[in-house]
Amino acid sequence: MGTTKELLLVYPSMERVFLKESVNVMLTPQFYTLKKEALPIKYAYQAKKIAPSLFDGLLEEGSDYEYMVFKEEEQWVFIAYDVDKIVNFLSSKGIESSMVSKIFFTQQVVDKFSAPIALGQKEALVVLDESVVVVPLAALGENESPSLTVDKTFTPQKGVSLQGDMGSFLTKKQAYALAGVLLFFAVLFVAEGSRYDGSEGAEEELEALYESHPTLQSSYTRDEVLNKYRNIDTQERKKRDGIKKLSNMIFKGVTLTHLSMNDSNYKADFTCVSTQVSKKLEELAKKENYKVTKVKNSHNLNIEGTL
Amino acid sequence: MSLKQYQNELIALAALLIMLFAYMYKHNQVTAHVQEAKIVQGSIEELKEVLALKKIWADKKISKKVESLQTLVPEAKVKWAKKSKKLAANYTKLSANELNKLTTKILNLPVIITLLDVEKTGSNYKVDLKCKW
């Protein structure tokens, strides 16, 4: 991945550049603080955890440092760098963070320093005590001319991605935390949704009913039977209800002389002893929405109802 | 603009999309389940109604129960004609008490009343009943 892009050596006195495509950036020691320690630690993530405490008092206060850790033979190499500072510098040299694929540190390629590397007209990168340092060109000996140039072959395997954080609204940590929460909910929803797959008690009840009444499994048969008996039930209940209402109209002074009921209507003739009784009966009949007919020259009433 | 520049947002967006799909899955499952439950519940209720109505109106013992209408009053007062699942009965000279007992019995029997005619003659009652089941 890293080797496919141009590797640009970045140092404070460099000229402003104009980029057409994204590049990898290699930072000189002016952009990072280096510390080497021989620690009884097996994994890089463990070393990274203790990195802030190793640089205690060495770094500028008020800056937000990040750390890179890798192993160099028996020693752990700790590099502390200020992303904001690096980004601001790159920007001042015409290198927007969106154009930076990955950043590397010269210490990562200490093995490749077979000769000094010139940093402009006045400085050079050399290796002293297994550490890459910046020295004035004048300090180099006659046989130490800065003949080496940085190219793609210097690109280390492990780098730091700037683009993940720069220009982003979310930091990597925030993104992962948010994604974690959202995925947790996703798992909950899927688990909850899959719970609805199984059959419920109602289905079992229905199956049991079908088993005990196999002829009613067909909905057509059910509808047919239901319609038949529902009609009978409604009609017969109306008839019985009508008779009950008419019998409730029999009170002192009222006699039922005739009652006739068929499939569509019913009719009752009542004899009343007085006008008062007749009026009371009429009121009761009208309450039930019956048709009331007074018999001429008497207190008697004929009451009709429909089914 | 490089998409890589917004990779953090893309990670969060991807997670959000996964969550939304999961929510839709859950929602669809719940909706489908509720619909299915409604259908099953409807079928159960329908079936129970059919069974309840059949128990009342298609009772095989109705024919036997109808016989009680003949024995409820003295034999001399009844003219009984029962054929298959139909009955035509004429009652005469019924007292008010007998009339009450008879009508109560008729109303409580699960039969289709096609005709019920009650007429007062003097102090007695005459009843014509036609029914089927």
Properties at a glance:
heterodimer, A: 307 residues, alpha+beta, Gyrase A, domain 2, 2 domains, 4-stranded antiparallel sheet, 3-stranded parallel sheet, 6 helices, rod-shaped, B: 133 residues, 4 helices, 55% helix
Describe this structure in words.
In chain A, the strands form four sheets. Chain A has a four-stranded antiparallel beta sheet, with helices on one face. Chain A has a three-stranded parallel beta sheet with strand order 1-2-6, with no helix packed on it. Chain A has a three-stranded antiparallel beta sheet with strand order 3-5-4. In chain A, a hairpin with a 6-residue loop joins strand 12 and strand 13. The longest helix of chain A has 30 residues, at 219-248. Chain A contains six helices and 13 strands. Chain A is of the alpha+beta class. With 133 residues, chain B is of the alpha+beta class. Chain B folds into two domains: 3-57; 62-132. Chain B has helices spanning 7-57, 62-66, 68-71, 96-108, and strands at residues 78-83, 86-94, 112-121, 124-132. In chain B, strands 1-2-4-3 form a four-stranded antiparallel beta sheet. Chains A and B meet through helix 3, helix 4, helix 5 and strand 10 of A and helix 1 and strand 3 of B.
